[in-house]
Write a structure and sequence with these properties.
single chain, Serine Threonine Protein Phosphatase 5, Tetratricopeptide repeat, mainly alpha
Length: about 425
């Protein structure tokens, strides 16, 4: 009996040590970046904006000044989440194109970039095709045409364009090759190419390139289960840009999904939301509440999200989120929105949402047809696999559910604890 007790204590200590080893984050690492009064990036943008705005007021038809202010408005959208800046930037870029006597392709690309941010992908493609007709800067246009082709599900054209811009020493090529590898389900290659892009960014010493690369590679590391590496790169981002909301959100997600610490994750989200006001955070807070079993808080945060999306002119930027929300409470509304989203961009990811909406609307046979025709074997996204499993299960195809369930267990961090509870019930 004594030996059994000793063994039990040893196992308990070992278990505690294991839990400590699993912990990745440390409050001392990220706490300095949660000071909500410190917004150096936004402050620098506003200071620069003041200079160019004064020039523009003196000469309202100056293409140079218009272009500068439009770019700064776009930056403010990224830094604050205020979508008004994005729409103001759009109008200024349209005026730049109309007024410019040369470099029209440049303004078409800038406007296309704005449309991509608004999820107006078809309109962005039209602009880029027009820009491609100009004799200059075709490489820059090809890069963006690749981006929009991926968003529209035109993977054959995307592949062709990737071949046109091939240059293993070029940052812009490497990050797109990484994205292509991820689309093909080759996460190891996606990480390898992003690491090569990171090396290029660091050798060039351009902070904006390093920041972009660090946050993106951190996401990939998370998907691969390399949580320590993900955390490290979010911190590297914050060292360069202390008010980077995306990196803070990434750390909050690690606290929730890996360390099961929703209260600390909530604390970080609260600090972000003071200065970066986008609807996404309400859904993340809803998920944290769901994890805690606080259903009234879940409903409250989901309603906050819906109100935030409808109060501002976001267009179709949050359709995918709304489809999943409405699928439970208003399936016909979700179905109409999903059909609209597929029309906007027909990708396996939008089709899996359509199938999910069809299933929730009581159309399980239609949902199965959608999955078999447009999703199965065409995407490696865990959420698509989960919705596919729900459709298969509803149609009595349990033989297809088991292997998907095993696959989803490998993506536990990416899916999060709340969704993994649902996976266990498949």
């Amino acid at each position: 009996m004594k030996n059994i007790l000793i063994l039990a204590v040893i196992f308990l200590i070992a278990g505690c040590n294991y839990e400590k080893e699993k912990k990745t984050t440390a409050m001392v690492d990220y706490n300095p970046y949660l000071a909500t009064q410190q917004t150096p990036t936004k402050d620098a943008t506003l200071a620069e904006m003041e200079f160019w705005q004064k020039r523009l007021e003196a000469n309202p038809n100056s293409v140079v000044d218009l272009s500068k202010v439009a770019g700064l408005k776009n930056a403010l959208f990224s830094e604050t989440g205020d979508v008004t800046n994005l729409h103001q930037s759009e109008k200024m870029l349209q005026k730049c194109y109309e007024l410019s006597a040369r470099n029209k392709d440049t303004y078409l690309r800038s406007l296309a970039h704005n449309y991509i941010s608004q999820h107006r992908f078809k309109e962005a493609k039209v602009l880029l095709d027009s820009a491609y007709a100009f004799p200059d800067n075709k490489h820059a246009t090809e890069l963006m045409l690749f981006d929009v082709s991926m968003e529209l599900g035109d993977y054959q054209r995307a592949d062709t364009l990737l071949g046109k811009v091939k240059n293993n020493a070029d940052f812009n090529y490497l990050i797109r090759l990484s994205k292509w590898s991820d689309y093909k389900g080759d996460l190891d290659s996606a990480i390898r190419y992003m690491e090569q892009a990171k090396a290029v960014a660091e050798s060039g010493g351009i902070n904006s390139m390093k920041i972009w690369t660090y946050t993106n590679i951190a996401d990939y590391y998370g998907h691969a289960g390399r949580i320590d590496d993900a955390y490290k790169h979010y911190l590297m981002t914050l060292k360069l840009q202390p008010d980077n909301a995306y990196a803070k959100k990434g750390i909050a997600y690690i606290l929730y999904a890996s360390e099961k610490n929703p209260s600390e994750a909530n604390r970080i989200l609260d600090s972000i939301m003071v200065t970066h006001k986008v609807p996404d955070y309400y859904l993340q807070k809803a998920e944290l509440a769901d994890y805690n079993g606080n259903l009234s808080e879940v409903k409250k945060q989901e309603q906050n999200f819906i109100e935030a999306v409808t109060a501002a002119n976001y267009g179709g930027m949050y359709n995918t989120y709304l489809i999943e929300l409405y699928a439970e409470s208003a399936p016909e509304k979700a179905l109409a929105l999903a059909e609209k989203e597929v029309e906007n961009r027909a990708t396996p990811e939008t089709y899996q949402l359509l199938a999910y909406a069809q299933l929730k609307a009581g159309k399980k046979e239609e949902a199965l047809k959608t999955i078999e025709t447009y999703v199965e074997g065409k995407t490696f996204e865990p959420k698509a696999a989960f919705h596919s499993a729900l459709v298969y299960k509803a149609n009595g195809m349990t033989d297809k559910v088991t292997p998907i369930k095993e696959e989803l267990n490998e993506a536990a961090f990416e899916l999060g604890p709340v969704l993994m509870r649902k996976v266990e019930k498949l």
